């Protein structure tokens, strides 16, 4: 299912040729089969499980090198030129310059310090888009050593190890560890990732109210509580997404693209 | 860039508002600065401004001398840091101010507290703060929710005096608290607290490490242990031994000590106790009324606090514990208060007598003791009158003596007791050995150097003294005097003792 033709296309991007992806073939992607997403937090009238149609997903987060190629082709997204409406002052803060990565941003490491707007612009340049929460969580529900990430000891080990180490120095390269059983790397324990609908996550900052019944901050309906309040990684993802605004550029937040078949 | 691409970019940038409707764009464009409230601004402007002094445990900021409210600016930074949990054991703590517990905040009743919470760019997670001293939804949690590399500002008036816990309230809250995200804020009552000589900050918390207590290396958080509330570590001030040895808190005889005791939890209730002290006053649950005098152990709930005060009367080391004692002795919940000064023998004498104590046997001369003595003597007589028992005793000695022989003696005297011709004399059928029991004992315990004639042959060598106790000497001699063709020699520990004493 995996295609490796993207390098050639990357070369095309470098010479400025327009690129338009129509399916996963142009990027290094796998087809995530149709499935279901069980929201961590949901309103009373939302179903327990939401169907998710199949989609192509990048097998790893977008790297600094890939994002540099994008910025070269679209210089309006260079660090000093990007509109402040779309990126905050930390945009690509770890790069050495507008078109220079430098020691804090190894080419193979996932790109971070990118806003939701910048991530979407990158995806669109490939004819791709950001995954929805449902799609991202659908892919991440599949474990590394078993099909169920929630109970997979390998996932638990990666997550616990990640939370238990502070961020220091440049990030490691993408795809350094084992992929999950769909063939997708780095869903756990490398960076957080932007999703299209990040700000619909139902964590309000007053997280204890999120398991109560009266919360109606963003969705207009009360919550019936959480799907599984021991699913702490899912809580953390939801909490992280909730802390963001679309222009935020955060040190450990990257992204990957998906394409609708 | 081609025109086509440019137009696509324009479309792209317009997409958010089209696709996501209100929420995404509204959030992106929300003003970073909330609209100022005129009433509040006026109040803030009427107050003098000062910067809060924050301290790391066990230290406490100085008492507030003001007799009027102020606008107090608190700058607190959230950092995720690797620090020592115990010797050789590291843990990634999520902290308020780089410390566990978080920095101590001291304000006065009526103060307007302007809180700046910054989340360091290297943080993995968003964080916030819920101060129990805040009157308002979430205790400030929603207002202070801050992504990595961002700062939030909110303010509150410290309406209620007391000692309050603060903690992170970001989902999942227990994980943030279990990583060390808690501390204390004291809101002094208008008139201040009664003056004391020493104030210290002690806060308990438990840690759910994957490794057992003492397992070295960087430990990871263990979810199942947290769910079961089975922490390998329960500690004061963020690590095992944070307040022992040269890090102990101190006071001088005659001084009054106030401890601001907090419990971050996340799960356990502390039975806080200072061994050898009685709390003269306890401000239970962190309130402002000393609601009990003369308390031995006070409960400090998870997410709660207490103030305890006591005058130290005599010098020495006083141990702070969670009196749920396994936590103190096996999980780290132990600190020290070292008190210097002159002893006061009236208050506490120290050890005056150490003497032998015999329990029930001490009633010598009682009827029961005499009766017991008579029965013992009778048993000895019966045993002595039974030759079979004497034989068994000898057999027991032989078995023990054999083991000693084959570890201490056989290398020179040989497996069969024949010695080595012309070098080491034989023990087998030895006239020298069997002729004089006391001499044989003496040779074993003192050694023998120089010429000796055994069975008509002269040997001139050296045997070192044997490091054996009376019973072992008796056993080994009984063995050789009944082996290798020798018979009927019996040596008792009493014989050995007699010879040792005589020499």
Automatic annotation (TrEMBL), chain A:
The keyword Signal applies. SUPFAM superfamilies: C-type lectin-like (SSF56436). Residues 1-21 form the signal peptide. Residues 27-258 form the Sulfatase-modifying factor enzyme-like domain. Keywords: Signal. It holds the Pfam family FGE-sulfatase. It comes from the Bacteria. PANTHER family: FORMYLGLYCINE-GENERATING ENZYME, SULFATASE MODIFYING FACTOR 1, 2. This is Formylglycine-generating enzyme family protein. The lineage of its organism: Bacteria, Pseudomonadati, Verrucomicrobiota, Opitutia, Opitutales.
From TrEMBL, chain B:
GO terms for molecular function: nitrite reductase (NO-forming) activity. Residues 1-28 form the signal peptide. Its cofactor is Cu(2+); Cu(+). It catalyses: nitric oxide + Fe(III)-[cytochrome c] + H2O = Fe(II)-[cytochrome c] + nitrite + 2 H(+). Its EC number is 1.7.2.1. The keyword Oxidoreductase applies. CDD domains: CuRO_1_CuNIR, CuRO_2_CuNIR. Residues 396-484 form the Cytochrome c domain. SUPFAM superfamilies: Cupredoxins, Cytochrome c. Transmembrane segments: none annotated. It holds the Pfam family Cu-oxidase_3. Keywords: Copper, Heme, Iron, Metal-binding, Oxidoreductase, Repeat, Signal. Homotrimer. Belongs to the multicopper oxidase family. This is Copper-containing nitrite reductase. The lineage of its organism: Bacteria, Pseudomonadati, Verrucomicrobiota, Opitutia, Opitutales.
């Amino acid at each position: 299912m995996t295609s490796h033709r993207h390098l050639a296309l990357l070369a095309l991007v470098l010479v400025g040729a327009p690129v338009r992806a129509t399916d996963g073939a142009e990027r290094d992607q796998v087809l995530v089969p149709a499935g279901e997403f069980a929201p961590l937090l949901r309103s009373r009238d939302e179903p327990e499980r939401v169907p998710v149609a199949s989609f192509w997903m990048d097998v790893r987060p977008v790297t600094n090198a890939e994002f540099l190629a994008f910025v070269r082709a679209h210089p309006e997204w260079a660090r000093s030129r990007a509109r402040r409406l779309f990126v905050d002052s930390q945009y690509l803060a770890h790069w050495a310059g507008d078109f220079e990565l430098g020691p804090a941003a190894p080419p193979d490491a996932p790109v971070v310090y990118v806003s939701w707007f910048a991530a979407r612009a990158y995806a669109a340049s490939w004819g791709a888009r950001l995954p929805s929460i449902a799609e991202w969580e659908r892919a991440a529900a599949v474990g590394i050593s078993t099909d169920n990430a929630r109970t997979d000891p390998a996932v638990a080990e990666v997550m616990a190890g990640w939370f238990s180490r502070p961020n220091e120095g440049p990030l490691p390269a993408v795809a350094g560890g084992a992929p999950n059983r769909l063939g997708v790397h780095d869903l756990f324990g490398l960076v957080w990732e932007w999703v299209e609908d990040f700000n619909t996550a139902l964590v309000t900052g007053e997280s204890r109210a999120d398991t109560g019944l009266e919360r109606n901050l963003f969705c207009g309906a009360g919550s019936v509580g959480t799907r599984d309040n021991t699913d702490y990684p899912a809580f953390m993802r939801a909490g992280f997404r909730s802390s963001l605004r679309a222009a935020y550029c955060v040190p450990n937040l990257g992204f990957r693209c998906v394409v609708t078949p | 860039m081609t025109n086509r691409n440019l137009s696509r970019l324009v479309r792209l940038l317009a997409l958010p508002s089209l696709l996501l409707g209100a929420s995404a764009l509204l959030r992106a464009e929300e003003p970073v600065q909330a609209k100022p409230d005129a009433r509040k601004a006026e109040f803030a402007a009427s107050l003098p401004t000062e910067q809060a002094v924050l301290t790391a445990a066990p230290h406490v900021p100085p008492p507030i001398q003001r007799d009027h409210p102020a606008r107090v600016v608190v700058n607190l930074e959230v950092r995720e840091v690797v620090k020592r949990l115990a010797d050789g054991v590291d843990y990634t703590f999520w902290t308020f101010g780089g410390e566990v517990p978080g920095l101590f905040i001291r304000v006065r009743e009526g103060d307007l507290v302007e809180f700046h919470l910054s989340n360091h760019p290297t943080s993995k997670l968003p964080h916030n703060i819920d101060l129990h001293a805040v009157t308002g939804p979430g205790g400030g949690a929603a207002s202070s929710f801050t992504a990595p590399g961002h700062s939030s500002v909110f303010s509150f008036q410290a309406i209620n005096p007391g000692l309050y816990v603060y903690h992170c309230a970001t989902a999942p809250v227990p994980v943030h608290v279990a990583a060390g995200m808690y501390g204390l804020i004291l809101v002094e009552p208008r008139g201040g607290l009664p003056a004391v000589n020493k104030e210290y900050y002690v806060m308990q918390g438990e840690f759910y490490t994957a490794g057992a207590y003492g397992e070295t290396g960087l430990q990871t958080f263990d979810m199942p242990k947290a769910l079961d509330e089975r922490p390998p570590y329960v500690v004061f001030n963020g690590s095992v031994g944070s307040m022992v040895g040269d890090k102990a808190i101190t006071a001088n005889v005659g001084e009054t000590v106030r401890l601001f005791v907090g419990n971050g939890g996340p799960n356990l209730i502390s039975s806080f106790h200072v061994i050898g002290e009685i709390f003269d006053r306890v401000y239970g649950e962190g309130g402002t009324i000393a609601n009990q005098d003369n308390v031995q152990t006070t409960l400090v709930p998870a997410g709660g606090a207490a103030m305890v005060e006591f005058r130290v009367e005599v010098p020495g080391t006083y141990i702070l514990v969670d009196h749920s004692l396994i936590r103190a002795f096996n999980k780290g919940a132990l600190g020290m208060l070292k008190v210097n000064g002159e002893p006061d023998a009236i208050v506490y004498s120290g050890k005056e007598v150490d003497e032998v104590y015999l329990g029930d046997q001490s009633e010598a001369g009682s009827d029961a003791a005499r009766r017991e003595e008579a029965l013992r003597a009778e048993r000895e007589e019966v045993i002595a009158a039974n030759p079979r028992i004497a034989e068994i005793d000898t057999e027991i000695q032989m078995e023990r003596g054999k083991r000693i022989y084959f570890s201490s003696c056989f290398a020179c005297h040989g497996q069969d007791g024949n010695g080595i011709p012309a070098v080491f004399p034989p023990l087998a059928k030895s006239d020298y050995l069997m002729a004089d029991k006391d001499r044989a004992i003496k040779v074993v315990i003192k050694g023998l150097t120089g010429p000796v004639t055994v069975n008509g042959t002269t040997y001139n060598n050296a045997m070192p003294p044997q490091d054996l106790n009376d019973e072992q000497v008796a056993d080994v001699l009984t063995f050789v005097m009944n082996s290798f063709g020798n018979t009927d020699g019996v040596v008792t520990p009493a014989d050995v003792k007699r010879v040792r004493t005589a020499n």
